[in-house]
Design brief:
243 residues, 3 helices, 10 strands
């Protein structure tokens, strides 16, 4: 129960902080970042990760993503959307793994135990998207590069857990391709709109060192994502009329 409360509290403050950052950005630059041609947006979502060539892997937990996006209208149907997710959390559930802390007595207590690896990234995807003429659907694709900020492992046993820094077992950079299917709710958010995304990421890089697996262990995930644009009240009223 305490973990749930802490998680919800953390999510609330994270969303509030990022929303404040986006609002401040829009305030500083005025209509230039809240126009029909270009706007910033609050980005948030959840991902279900899975990994290639990792036999010692149980189903991973759902991760979270929060960040800010830029939305540039190239033409009536085409958009360019660079994003940055300051919080991009993914995890790996290992069925059994052994602690290697250098302390013989401690390591002997955590041999072949279930281990949860948490990976905290900064994700930078860049989408090129096509929007249908009725302004309801978007189809996009683009590259994503991820910078690992922290990795840690929790070694679990009935008598108690042990947490260890896991940087030596994980690579610092991940990169791949992201496919995006989106549905645009033009009247939502008081006319400012909400875009619902279903995404698939296919990693092209090995994210784990040979200490875990000598094979290529690429990161892949399916994500459900929301975009909340920041636009002017005039544009919001226009959206309500058009939709």
């Amino acid at each position: 129960m305490k973990k749930t409360i802490l998680l919800l509290t953390g999510l609330f403050f994270t969303v509030s902080t990022i929303q404040a950052q986006a609002a401040l950005f829009a305030l500083l630059f005025g209509d230039k970042v809240a126009s029909e041609k270009f706007n910033v947006s609050l980005e948030l979502g959840f991902n279900q990760p899975f990994y290639s060539n990792l036999d010692n892997n149980d189903r991973s937990k759902i991760g979270v993503n929060f960040g800010i996006g830029g939305n540039l209208k190239l033409s009536e149907n085409w958009f360019l959307s660079p994003n940055i997710y300051f919080l991009a959390k993914r995890n790996i559930q290992l069925n059994n793994f052994s602690l290697a802390s250098g302390n013989v007595n401690l390591d002997s207590q955590f041999v072949n135990v279930p281990t949860e690896v948490t990976l905290n990234y900064i994700d930078v995807p860049i989408f090129i998207s096509y929007q249908t003429n009725n302004k309801k659907y978007r189809f996009g694709m683009g590259p994503q590069i991820s910078f690992l900020q922290k990795s840690r492992a929790i070694f679990k046993r009935p008598e108690g857990d042990f947490t260890q820094n896991f940087d030596g077992y994980t690579e610092d950079i991940d990169y791949g391709l992201m496919a995006d299917f989106a549905y645009v709710l033009g009247k939502a958010h008081k006319g400012k709109g909400i875009i619902i995304h279903l995404r698939y990421y296919h990693g092209l890089n090995d994210i784990l060192t040979d200490k875990i697996s000598s094979q290529n262990n690429s990161s892949n995930f399916v994500a459900l994502h929301l975009t909340l644009p920041f636009i002017t009240d005039e544009l919001a009223e226009k959206n309500l009329k058009e939709n």
